[in-house]
Amino acid sequence: MIVLTPRLYSVASFVSGERLIDVGTDHAYLPVYLLNSEKIKYAWATDINKGPLKKAGDTISQNGCSDNCKTILTDGLNGLDELDCTDISIAGMGGILITEIIEKSELAKKSNLILQPMTHPHLLRKYLYDHGYSIIDEDLAKEDRRIYQIIKAKYTGISEKYSEYELYLGKKNIENKKPELFKLFCEKVHKELDIKFKGTKDPNFGEILKEIERIISQL
Ligand SMILES: C[S@@+](CC[C@H](N)C(=O)[O-])C[C@H]1O[C@@H](n2cnc3c(N)ncnc32)[C@H](O)[C@@H]1O
After folding, report:
1. Per-residue pLDDT reduced to its tens digit, 97-133
2. Which residue ranges make up each domain of the chain?
3. Of 49, 54, 88, 151, which is best to mutate to test ligand 1, by the most ligand atoms within 8 angstroms of its C-beta?
4. pTM of the shown model
5. 25 lines ligand 1 (CB under 6 A)
6. CA torsion sign, 98 to 69 to 40 to 7?
7. CATH number assigned to the domain covering 6-162
């Protein structure tokens, strides 16, 4: 039985439909966990590289999922438009690469998206809001000293307004205020932006820092 770490467990908990495409699956822990716990009925585990896809195939067969999980070698969502999926997960990749994968695919507009950017989460949120995706929910997961951000989004066709600081903290994270972790997260984001601000003296960062300080003071 696959046991997920907090990061992938949070990604798994945002999957709400029965048929998942896991983009950049690597070891395929996520689809196999969801299949074995009967949270989904079918999965496509995809990767751009043959090595990870071989690992995925081994995990799938060793855990008895060969009949309901297929591996596919492809770049992002290329060539997958015809698949009848409900959810798409893209985890453990840079935020800019995730936006590029979403942008190139029509399927992304028809599915629940569960995204876990390793870098540039603010640019991913900006892309989603500017391009008609609504962020339905967000979560934070801590492993060792790192806090991961998990975003669930759905295409509505309506662009949403946002403030700059919300791109860094996440509107839903602000609403949810996950106890303890949210404060630590705000402090980490503040520290990172403070370093950028000191380097650039960009007044935009100054404004964002003030907003984050205001939110921390209310926690
Ligand atoms: C760090 S692993 C993340 C694995 C897993 N999704 C997770 O979150 O634990 C990133 C995986 O994405 C794959 N990858 C990188 N770029 C990709 C792309 N454009 N399309 C599909 N897979 C990609 C890599 O080969 C690698 O297996």
Report:
1. 999 999 999 999 999 999 999 999 999 999 999 999 9
2. 6-162, 163-219
3. 49
4. 0.97
5. yes
6. negative
7. 3.40.50.150
